[in-house]
Structure formats: C-alpha cells, structure tokens
Amino acid sequence: MDAHELPDHLYADVKTLWDYHDMHHEPRPCDIGVGLGSHDLGVAIHAADLFHCGLFPRIVFTGANAPTTVERFPRGEAVHYREHALELGVPDGAILVEPNARNTGENIEFTRKLLADDGIEVRSLILISRPYQQRRAYATCKKLWPEVEVICSSRPLPLADYIRSIGDTKRVVDMLVGDTQRITVYAERGFAIHQDVPDNVHAAYERLVAAGYTSRLI
C-alpha cells in the first residue's frame, strides 16, 4: 500500500469515521484559542490562521510529548507549535505555552489552570486539533470545563489531502479507529461526556478493526 494513498475498498468506511469526528462547527470570535498538541503541525498552522482572522486575541499551545511525537518535536509539542506560530507572524505576546500535558484531559485541565493563574477569564474557546480529534476533544472539554462554550476547528483539508500532508495512510486510519473507540470508552470511564455513535459509524469502525487497523486501540 502506498503510504500516501487510501485503498479504494477502504475509502467509504474511513470517510464515514472522518465525517463523524468533524463537529462541523462554524468558527466565530471567542475569548481564547487552544491548540492541542500532537504530531500534526497543521494544528499550529490553523491556530495562526484563525488568530490572523481575528477570532481570538491569544493562543494557548498545550502538550508535552507522546511516544509518537518525541522524535519530531523533541522540545515538546507546545514549544514547537509556538515556534511555528511565531514564524507565521503571531506575536510572541499573544502565545501562552502549557508544556506538561500528556493527554487530552490534561490539555484541558492544565490550560484551564494556566489561564486562571494568569487572571484570564474564559467564557468561550476554540479548540484547535487534528480533524479526527474534534469530537473527542469536545466531549472531554465539556466534561472537564462544562461552563465554557466550545467550538472545535481543524485545518480544512479533505481526507485525501490530509493523508498526504501526514504522509502515512495507516497511521491516519489507525488514529481514526482509535479515536472512534475512545468516544465510547472514555465516556464509560468518566473522562468525557456521552456522544452518540450512529450504527453506520459503528459498522465502519468494526470493519476497519477487522481489516487490521488496530494499533491505536486501547
């Protein structure tokens, strides 16, 4: 399998999961932008784009490292995101860095504390993430920070273009499958609010698991 191409026989199921995780929120002005750390530098690019559009006055980049990011971002995800945003013209004074979070729950909790400690009141925020992380990030934030209004946003790339931008089809599909599982499991464990999983999404998930896209399953 070409690392940059999605096989035709998998496309419909992968697209079903891709569409499910997109919350389809319309970006609008909020008090803060929060860029969730990952292997995907597109998060920093999109955060900078939204900042330059005037949708928030400050960005928090949050994230330490995971095994999948330590080689690419050896100084930490949030630190590298900040550096890239600076290169894209975001002023240093508009960026806050939270360098310790190691999962999405910590991204939310540590960001909330950082802003509170700085005396920054937040009633609304834009969560900026990988496209397939939107629904899980939303469900996590609504559990841990229920009083804020949450809008999710990701770099607006079609599925095929996103896979090419990452350069690894299996990695993207594995992550999509893993995030789909986490929607249910994390709600059951009390980490996130409940989200409905439609029958067609569950069926697509099961077929992709059967096809071997299992490296990100819990």
TrEMBL record:
Pfam families from the UniProt entry: DUF218 (PF02698)
Official protein name in the record: DUF218 domain-containing protein
Source lineage: Bacteria, Bacillati, Actinomycetota, Actinomycetes, Pseudonocardiales
GO cellular component, one term: plasma membrane
Domain DUF218: 43-147
Organism: Streptoalloteichus hindustanus
InterPro entries: Cell_Envelope_Assoc, DUF218, Rossmann-like_a/b/a_fold
